[in-house]
Amino acid sequence: LVACNILTGIGTTLLIMYPVSYYVMDVNVCAPAMLVAVALAMSIDYSLFLLTRFNEERLDGRSITQSLEIALATQGHTIVVSGATLALCFTSMLVLPTSTITSMAAGAATAVLQSVLVSLSLTPALLLTMPRFFTADRMLGLTLDGTPFGTYRRASSGTVAQFGATIDRPTIIENPQPKKESIWAHVGRCSQRGAPVMFLFLALVMVPFAMALTRFSYVEDLTPLMQTTHPATKAFISISNIYGQDLTTPVQLLIMAPSQKAMASREWSLATCHMLQDLATKVTDRMHEEGHDYTMTTADFNGLMIFRGGCLADGLKFGVIDVMPAVHMYGMYDMVADLLSNRNQTATQVYVHCQVDLFSEVGEAWMRAVRASLPRPEVIRQPLGGHQDADSANYVPYGRWDDVEIGALHLYGMPLEQMDGAQYTLRRMPYVGLAIAAIVCIILGGSFGTALIPVRAVICIAWMLVVTFGASVMVYQLGYLEGLGIQALSPSSGQALFWISPSVAVAVLVGLGLDYDIFLMDSVMEHWQSGKDGKSAVVTSLDQAGTIISAAGVIMFLAFGALLASTTPVLNQIGFMLCVGVLLDCFVTTKVTIPCLMALVPDDANFWPLKQSATRELAIGREPSFGLEGEISRDCPRLSSRGREEPERSPRGAEVASSHPEIGRDHASSPQMTTSRRALPAHSRRAGR
């Protein structure tokens, strides 16, 4: 059943993203791997959440229909809230201007939404279509019972087996074994007893990671996006080393002349050459002002108007010989002009050489200096007409020299795109973080109706993010695990994180942290509304859901761990962040941090403004039950030897059972005989109706 959900979720997501990549946006090569990992992880998580509650209700003796209704009313709510939160977190990344991030965010958001739809539609449909196949107690569940080809299996005592063939009839489990308290309940209770000490310990644990995070730096090179073992990557690196970055990642200056006639004139060519010579001097002065020992020469420009620092309008001399007439005679100038100019001969490009690595600190300072040194007249005439101020957001440099209009100037190239994308993205990440925090507060506050649960969730997520990103800096920047000899855990080029890695990982980590938080808090709210105090509700929830959260976390760790097996450095870094974050969420946040923080605050504050008085009465003696027809029964349930509620037989059912024990159980499980393992929260009861 889980495999069906996984295959359907991944398949439908790919079917949606294919036309998106073809008609809507460019999809980065890393996006499919991220998409599959998210779809795999969320499909498994949501399937476990739903099927676990379904099996719990079946073990309490309810029919398949009743169990499925309760599972959808409780865990369905958890899945919807979790999926909506995670999808919104991914969607918030679409405001960033980088196609790499937006394509990965769009694919991940689509994968989450498809996982939610598949879990809430395909899973119930399969359970109701082939109930015995998925709930039988035979080996691997392989049975045809409950179908036209099956048999009506009976237990040795003559009663219907535990998972009966009729989905609308609950069953009764005789002499169930008492359940031991899980280790996670003990961990939660210990965290509550020493809450102040545990809170101080968690704060101290965060300190070294926070200190490492202050040394965070990033690189903008293209090699982290490439597979290190691929022949194309090796060829790219070899060409860059031999011929320089002018061939692999060139920086170019596009000059858009006012007209074709102007561009063909000698005056325009000479004025443009003089402007470029002056630009080299301005860039050198600006670099020296910023403290960089860098001198740009006129020979760093090469185009139709300038070569080796000299103006081609004045001739191309080798010694005392001018070879420019021969260049024109044999058509070599026209051939170069066709390569460097557009078809209409109204624009041309000039190659701008950098003497250092473009992705280094000095290289970035040089690109900023060249851009800042371009002409900035008071009023700029745009190529399409009209005027614009030099300080406007859409500022376009426009060159003029010796009363000759040169035209609009555009400095472009892959290094500039990487630099601008990194600076723009990281500069706006605090705003994205605030938006995500607002999404968390709005969704959790609206879902649970409390004021403190969203605040506590933000604190837990912030702690997890600091530790996760601090650990990433230790591994990929400081090289703490380099001695292991594992390529995926070693620093890449530049001894720093690739700038896209934290930008993508933050949304995934927030969503995953909320996923387990919501699952646990849904159970806590359910127990609290049934009459338990806050501490007992947390311990009971950990007893019931702790193992499931741990199992889901381990599975998700393995799913994201596959990214560490990739030969692409950026995927290794993202995979490491997600693996660390998932482990912290599953084994620290839900087991230690949440019980600790809730123990430090009184119950009235934890669940404010909700009141427990309205629900406490339901837990004393007479507990409402979830009926097959959506009815609420006030009959006091009978408890089994393990403390679980056991359905009571109606008088008519008891009479039939006394005379016909082989069918007494079936008859006693009429719709009037309904019960509940524990009181459901208000939203669950509404969903059940």
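(ticket continues) Second input and output from the same batch:
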Amino acid sequence: RPQQGVEDFSPSTRSLAQRRGLLRMLLRTSSALLLLVVPTAAFYLPGVAPIDYRDGESIDLKVNKLTSTKTHLPYEWYDLPFCRPAEVVYKGENLGEVMRGDRIQNSPYTIKMNVEVSCQLLCKQSYDAEQAALFATKIGEDYRVNWIVDNLPAATRVVEPALGSSPSRIITIYERGFPLGFRGAESIPGTSAGVNYVYNHHRIVLKYHTEPDAFEGARIVGFEVEPFSVQHEPAGAGGGLSTCSGARPVTHSAPPQPVSGPQTVYWTYDVRWEYSEVKWASRWDVYLYATDEQIHWFSIVNSLMIVLFLTGLLAMIMLRTLHRDLRRYNDAEAKEEAAEEGGWKLVHGDVFRPPQRPALLSVYVGTGVQVLGMSVVTMCFAVAGFLSPANRGALMTALLLLFTAMGVLAGFVSARLYKALSGSDWRMTTLKTAVMFPGIIFIVFFSLNMFIWGQKSSGAVPFGTFFALLALWFGISVPLVYLGAFFGYRRPKIEPPTKTNMIPRTVPEHAWYTQPVFSVLIGGLLPFGAVFIELFFILSSIWLHQYYYVFGFLLLVFLILIITCAEISIVMCYFQLCAEDYHWWWRAFLTSGSSGLYLFGYSIMYFHSQLEIDGFVPTLMYFTYMAVFSTLFFLVTGTIGFYSCQKFVWAIYAAIKVD
């Protein structure tokens, strides 16, 4: 102990003083950061900041593409002869919006804050037979109108008629868009069966919220449209319409407007304002949380049951069977008995023998890691709220940019695995990693785009966008893949825990249930079973134009999928090694990867049971996109299974004693 008044410069004291000094520096830095953070106000993401409107201020109503769940071929609003403004102005779209076929334009509708309008004549259009037939065709194909006010999509307002003593009630359907028209039927009064009728009158209902203490003016928190079909009649020389006025609003009992043959159509609209207690920050909730959460919880419970079953099976193998094998193999007295019995130890000299086509396996695994990284980061951003539907196209843009950025992981993983498999031509393997799957997808997408372009649909991606995608691919993604491969191949080779024999061991005959095809198909069934319920909602969002924003559930299900793929691959790999079959490399990838085959089979069933797609091009679009999606799912699940088996095999053979 040092004397009082004398400084102690022993190593322990100096170390303690250094730690205290470091602690003081950290405290000062933290305090400075807190001083910077405390006065900082909250911010809004670009493009989604609230707009405060004063009474009488103009509000833009923008029109977007026409969409259909029957054709999935979007068209621009003015591809049909609607009322046009003096000058059509396009809103600048991001990459994701262009890829989705969005074409946002201005409209001639006049809306002012808190100013109600009744039976306002928009325009009078005279249609020839060809134009009327165009309307009739689009109505028969169930095309829907997509309008936007203050970045909010239109919701459909439906009025349920009064039945007996029950009063009529308003039902708001929060789906994408509202119908362009309807087909007449005997059950609909005033219509003829088989005749198409257009909705030429729209009642625009805007909901607003005010907080005088927080902001000035009002904020729009709801946008609903109630469509009507009315065969308007002019009032005479005085102008106006005899079928509606400010004192005589439009009702659904009015004679509807057919579209058959040359005719004149009057386009009219109402504007109604309603106060709402919903705050601006919560205005998207009615769109995003329209589905029942209990179904998603049921999906998670279903997935957890599969995980618990596999975890129990894996625990039995690891804690009982494998532990018993290791004890027997490492027991000197039982070595001869273990050798006579056979088992996974007997293939220790062949289990790390490189597989056939190691370069192709490396490309598959590298691309799988690239897609896996893109998926995980995208879901994390979505859960954090950065990919709100208020930013149209943000999700698609994020997927493209993240796939490009993850090229460095693909190059690193493929080069490192290829080197571990004793490969030498890493440059060619890197080139395949950079261009194989992206090239296949690009060729398929480009060929499909030619069919869509032939239909004159706005869903056809412009050639300028293709050049932008090529610039992303060859200008950023390919160099990143080579950069990752450069660092991956420079890393030390992953050495196996046991040596490989010069002469390959003969694999004994297998029973029918241990054959590769059967075991691979069985292995992919459980990972698909863990996600198929949530998959239904994802497909409905894509092909039925429904909103999907439960990314928290999706991330949880994805984590369960990762665990399921890892466990089923390890279990099947252990059974394979116990059968003295050391060809596990490709089997490990294909076992969990075969779930992509089940996904494509499920898409066929979904096509016939849930969709009403008509025409060759829409059908080709569906199966092409689902084939690409199933392939990506195959790569992701296969990569998870492969790395799980690799860790498992390395661990068990490192734990045994080999002479």
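Agent notes: Residues 616-654 form the longest helix (39 residues). The CA atoms of residues 63 and 147 lie 5 Å apart. Closing as not reproducible unless the customer responds.
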